[in-house]
Amino acid sequence: MNFTPFDRLNDKYDTIVIGSGLGGLTCANRLARAGHSVLLLEHHIQLGGLATWFKRGGHIFDVSLHGFPYGMVKTCKKYWSKEIRDSIVQLKNIVFDNPQFSLTTTFSKDDFIRLLEEKFLIKPSVVTEFFRTVDGMNFYDDRSMTTRELFDRFFPGRSDVHRLLMEPITYANGSTLDEPAITYGIVFSNFMNRGVYTFEGGTDRLIGMMADELQKNGVTICTGAKVDRIVVDNGKVRGVEVRGRMIQAPAVVSNSGITNTIDNLAGRDAFSDDFLSRFDRVKVNNSSCQVYFGIRRGEGFDDVGDLLFTSTAEEFSSEEMRKMDTKSRTFSVYYPKTRPDHPDYTVVASMNADFEDWAGLDEETYAREKEAMVERCFVDLERYIPGIRDKVDIIESATPKTFNRYTLHTRGTSFGTKFEGLDISRSIFKEIPGLFHVGSVGIIMSGWLGAINYGVIVANDVDAHLRG
Ligand SMILES: Cc1cc2nc3c(=O)[nH]c(=O)nc-3n(C[C@H](O)[C@H](O)[C@H](O)COP(=O)(O)OP(=O)(O)OC[C@H]3O[C@@H](n4cnc5c(N)ncnc54)[C@H](O)[C@@H]3O)c2cc1C
Question: In the CATH scheme, what is the homologous superfamily, with its name and number, of domain 6-51+204-283+410-467?
Fold first, then answer.
């Protein structure tokens, strides 16, 4: 993709968006469509942030295209284009396999009701009431109930049911049983709407289509441009410093993590003590590890499902899922249908992980731990695809350090912040007029759908500020 070289940038824009994650891209697109001049600055050479891909040995590996809710259909049509919407397709075979149960599901409400009643033998009235409660949750609800309390209320002592309901959500946004039930309810209901979806053509095609759309709408895009500072003067945003140059704008939208935005880009001096005391309570979410397997051209395997939630741990535990030697991982299986123009078989194993476990290792131990992780994934994958070792020609792996390096996110966080981050992100422009934040916060604003929808919300705030 050809973007604008750094030395051709203007000295002034209406808005500067820092970062090209799905939230930043969407916000930039909306603002350009509203008639504002928009500069999008991305430190990496590629757009997309965590919605990314890489090429190795003739394979294309997707990093975060494992599944998103049906809501993406409407969101992409409304805020991007019909062409993007038309490539969204359902993943129909979601597999769970663990010591407590093995099953295949479409991960939709109807199918979950069937499973809960017929396989887990939960009374229909309890199932109905559970879904009624979860569907009815909204942001303004009482936030004192935790997900653990929610599950104990409906399914006391049923750790198998807790696992069915919670394990996928912990992978999807890092949440635990001890967080507000609302964070669980909103994300679970989104998926239960109609199941799990993917983008035909892969992440590269989606981001390419988004980049075309942005350029068509007049957004100036510059990659390899790491913003060093958001300039705040007399309590107002003036612009950014990037590669030793000041570019002015009355509105700056940071898609960098909220912790980076406040601690490093704007700097703590720009904020009031009251705001900082609230900000200091914000906890970032966990990170991830991944192992990518590319299958030699000409080889393949039978359909084993699209997304496999696997574990050999006796019971669900979000702590166990973050351990370096976790026994819990998802396998996303990509068949030739994923990229009809580039037919290929790849498998991506994903695990939740803590940055601290990996960041402090010396080089040799780090390399050894990565190898051990690859081997654990191989052993597990062989249970589903016998003989896979002989078919793989490329193996790559990523740890929290990798995610930190490519996105600059604090502790390589995969899903932004815990719940407290939402209030900080939503109120930053009241603290510093002209400074906005978009991107994964508060669990519910993360994931592909959450990030895009949040991009729209923040674009509306910026538009009001620029016109105000
Ligand atoms: C392993 C993994 C698997 C996932 N799987 C799924 C999934 O299956 N389904 C799903 O819905 N979600 C998934 N997610 C989550 C989803 O990818 C993210 O929530 C979403 O893409 C985040 O978008 P964002 O707008 O918050 O920005 P991010 O993607 O976090 O991007 C932020 C951007 O800002 C840039 N940036 C930061 N600082 C600067 C700076 N100073 N100057 C310039 N640029 C800067 C970064 O380089 C980056 O491009 C997954 C995430 C991970 C890590």
Answer: FAD/NAD(P)-binding domain (3.50.50.60)
